[in-house]
Amino acid sequence: MKSFYIIAAGIALAFASTAPADASIYDFTIHSQNYDIAGEITTSGNQVTSITGQLSGLLNATITGLLNQPNAYFTSDNLFSPAGPFVSNDGILFGAGGYSINIYSVANGGGYTYYIANSQFLGNYYSDPTSAPLFAPGDPILSGTITAVPEISTWAMMIVGFAGLAVFGGRRIARQGSRIAA
């Protein structure tokens, strides 16, 4: 009967340890011709509730957070999906260095092309970080990563699972040791 409980606990632990984390925090990096962005997105469901990080390249600035809607330069819905498309056509709108920055997607055949657009005005967008042609249409994103950050409850469940394995494994070794001594 005892072995039944041990097997049942092992099966329950296996299912618990493989359950996906209900992560609402994501680390991300984005690389384009003119910008590199590294930061963290916090969501509630698919709605982005905050964004932090650093923008570098033509504009070196700290991300100051999401911008309110409506915005004079862009529309955005601030939706994020870890399965793709990661952002919608309206995108995620945030501030950095006094400018509005929008990361958005455009359907392209069977996939999506992602862009970074900004609200810089008047000048050469590609060589001067303080100026751009009237509404820069966007810089194509060349590469990027998105990684879910597990919640504290996920870490706690994993630690409890390993502790349970250690307890059951230790008892089994102790019983085998006493049989050998007898």
UniProtKB/TrEMBL annotation:
Keywords: Membrane, Signal, Transmembrane, Transmembrane helix. It comes from the Bacteria. The chain crosses the membrane at residues 152-170. Residues 1-23 form the signal peptide. This is PEP-CTERM sorting domain-containing protein. It comes from Bradyrhizobium campsiandrae.
